[in-house]
Amino acid sequence: MSRNLATADSSIPSTISEEIAELTRRLQFATPALIEDCLERMRAGGMELPPGLRRGWLDEYRYALHRVPAYGLVMATKKIKRGEYPDHRGNFVPLPAQLAHLCRIEAESTIADLTRLKAKANAAKTTADLFAPKDTEEQARQKARIRELHAAFKAHHAAVKAAQKGWGPAAEPIDHESAQYWTLIKNLQDSGPLTAEQQEFRRRIDMEISRAKPPVKNEGKSDD
After folding, report:
1. How far apart are CA 111 and CA 115, in angstroms?
2. Whether the Cβ atoms of residue 70 and residue 36 lie closer than 8 Å to each other
3. Going by fewer Cβ within 10 Å, which terminus of the chain is more open, N or C?
4. Sequence-distant (≥ 6) Cβ neighbours of residue 112 within 8 angstroms
5. What angle do CA 200, 203, 207 make, to 5 degrees?
């Protein structure tokens, strides 16, 4: 079985995230290969198939066990081979439904541990969110303004592209005030390397700034 580790949240201790990932892996459903392997191990120990279960017996076990936790199946197989179930006759493999029941019993403690750890992780994340620094009113206003201008710019750029392809009327250039604003945004220092999408967005901003309308001049009216 492959180990599929969950991505850890930065607010959750790494040990908890690792334990959650391991328990989640254990509770993955048993694969057909694992089912066949566990049955073969029991039969290799001298156990026979239950009386009356002959033709199509493997399909019966696959059907009964296809949604039981893999960990439960492995543990049940070990205990059956060791004779740790007092009600089980060691000369026969348990019936499909009986084996599935034993698998689920063996997985109960793992399910309980996973539930407890997830609750602990959620509590840690909630606490971290409560004490996380919040944006000031001015920062929130600026972010909202940036989102608004970004959306307007994308809509304008889409209109330009549509006009270039003959899909719609030609888009008006952005005004001088918007061009000044986007020039300031463009000149801000980047926090890290730009992605390809961010670089493309920068190029679109440069193109639109170069096409911006000139500032409006207030000219006095001449008397006739």
Report:
1. 6
2. no
3. C
4. none
5. 140
3-state secondary structure of 69: strand
Predicted confidence band of residue 63 (pLDDT cuts 50, 70, 90): very high
Question: Which H helix or E strand runs over 193?
Answer: none
Supply the pTM of this predicted model: 0.50
Q: Torsion over CA of 151, 157, 163 and 165, rounded to 10 degrees?
A: -110
* DSSP symbols for 127-169: HHHHHSPPPPHHHHHHHHHHHHHHHHHHHHHHHHHHHHTTSSP
pLDDT one-digit tens code per residue, 122-136: 887 776 665 666 667
**Which three-class secondary structure state does DSSP give residue 29?**
strand
List phi, psi (to 5°) of 48.
-100, 160
Residue whose structure tokens are 């995230």: 17
Residue 86: both structure tokens together: 């007092």
